[in-house]
UniProtKB/TrEMBL annotation:
Organism annotation: Candidatus Magnetominusculus xianensis
InterPro entries per UniProt: AICAR_Tfase_dup_dom_sf, Cytidine_deaminase-like, PurH-like
SMART domains for the chain: AICARFT_IMPCHas
Recorded superkingdom: Bacteria
Full protein name: IMP cyclohydrolase
Pfam families hit by this protein: AICARFT_IMPCHas
Length: 430
């Protein structure tokens, strides 16, 4: 057991070169390995190290920043040097290295920025775990945004990566410090925030002033490399979100066997806001995925499943579970699973647990009036029916299925009627 625990405290040496040069056609790209001078965890002396380790403690890893060269393929120009975000984090940016960052810390942060670049107009927070958001929210203040994102899934947020698009003040820092996180990143820390956060010695605290420029990254493409087990490569352009405003959505409409099917109820302004929010969150979720959002907060997130009806059901299950846990925590200050255990041990009343279950069922896990978002089309109406049964009021998906007419019919037959829009774009992410 001691050896297993030691495994997670290890900082591997990496044997990757300091510089990396890639030639694509007549273009040469030059990358430089990013390292940081940080205090040794045992001696406190400054040492220069790159990534802690890769996805697992026995995998070496390195992160490289593009320092020279640019690439144009088929008229598409890719990000130029000097635009670094995560790969450009310096010692000054690394306010506190904590347990020293590994690959997953930085890839979580990178995907958080991939989401936040579409959420720049209002204070927003997103918490990631295993490169998927577990909670995301808008707020009137950055503190409110964080609290909502955390409460959306307190369980999964444990040990997660938090990214905030506004400076962190002391009140927000105190809210963050009440929980366990691996990483917190923000454009700035002010008003005594650092004195609160640095008490958490293992927390990685990262200042990313470039967050103020995130909106400028929405249309910047990058080259996505996938290495195959045979040493081969698949190279693709990065995804670009085509939905930026409500007018970019298409009211659901299709023709099947000469009959035209059109969605009967148009979205309200508040539904459009949630549909935009949800579609922006979808940019950072692994497919197949279905999520539910309401009032600028994620309610249930289903990720990485093989079938669409299954992932819709999983997201519902998670919404119910998280809603009940949030009720329990607000009332009793402990997690639902802990409360259930204490009921079994006779330390808590069964009636209190039953009350939480009844209220969760009545509220349908917070899904009533929510927007249901899918990263691709629904091939059958069964996935749409899952959301309608739970009381969703709006549905967003790519459209383009041969059976779109079934989904439109399901929405028109619902009582009350459900609205639906198409994006005309699939956003798979593997």
């Amino acid at each position: 057991m001691a050896e297993l625990k030691k495994m997670y405290k290890t900082i591997l040496d990496d044997h990757f070169p300091d510089d990396l040069t890639i030639t694509l056609g007549d273009t040469t790209l030059v990358y430089r390995k990013r390292t940081w001078k940080i205090p040794d965890e045992k001696t406190g002396e400054l040492i220069e190290k790159g990534l802690r380790y890769g996805e697992n403690p026995d995998q070496e890893a390195a992160v490289y920043e593009l320092v020279n060269g640019n690439l144009t393929i088929a008229g598409c120009e890719y990000i130029r040097p000097g635009k670094g975000l995560v790969s450009a984090i310096t010692e000054e940016d690394m306010v506190q290295a904590g347990k020293h960052p590994g690959k997953t810390n930085l890839t979580d942060l990178d995907n958080a920025l991939n989401i936040l670049k579409y959420l720049t107009q209002r204070p927003a927070a997103v918490i990631l775990k295993h490169n998927n958001p577990c909670g995301a929210a808008y707020g009137g203040t950055i503190e409110e945004a964080y609290l909502k994102a955390d409460m959306a899934d307190r369980i999964a947020a444990f040990g997660g990566c938090l990214a905030l698009n506004r400076p962190v003040d002391k009140a927000t820092a105190e809210a963050i410090a009440a929980n366990y996180l691996e990483v917190v990143a923000a454009p700035e820390f002010e008003g005594g925030a650092l004195s609160v956060l640095t008490k958490k010695k293992n927390l990685r605290i990262i200042r990313l002033r470039q967050m103020a420029e995130l909106a400028g990254y929405r249309d910047m493409k990058y080259i996505d490399f996938k290495a195959l087990i045979d040493g081969g490569l698949i190279i693709q352009q990065s995804q670009t979100n085509k939905i930026r405003k409500k007018e970019d959505f298409q009211l659901a409409k299709t023709t099947f066997k000469g009959v035209e099917y059109t969605i009967e109820r148009h979205p309200t302004d508040s539904e459009y806001e949630d549909m935009l929010f949800g579609w922006n969150i979808e940019q950072g979720i692994s497919s197949n995925s279905v999520i539910y959002v309401k009032d600028g907060v994620t309610v249930g997130i289903g990720t990485g499943e093989q079938d669409r009806v299954g992932v819709a059901e999983i997201a519902v299950f998670k919404a119910y579970t998280k809603y009940a846990d949030a009720l329990c925590f607000k009332r009793h200050g402990i997690a639902l699973k802990v409360f259930e255990l204490e009921v079994k041990e006779g330390k808590r009343k069964r009636d209190e647990l039953d009350e939480i279950a009844v209220e969760t069922k009545q509220a349908r896990g917070g899904l009533i009036g929510s927007a249901m978002i899918s990263d691709a089309f629904f091939p059958f109406r069964d996935g749409v029916d899952v959301g309608i049964e739970e009381g969703v009021s709006a549905i967003v998906h790519a459209g383009g299925s041969e059976r779109d007419f079934e989904s439109i019919t399901a929405c028109n037959e619902a009582d009350p009627k459900v609205t639906m829009v198409f994006t005309g774009q699939r956003v798979f992410k593997h």
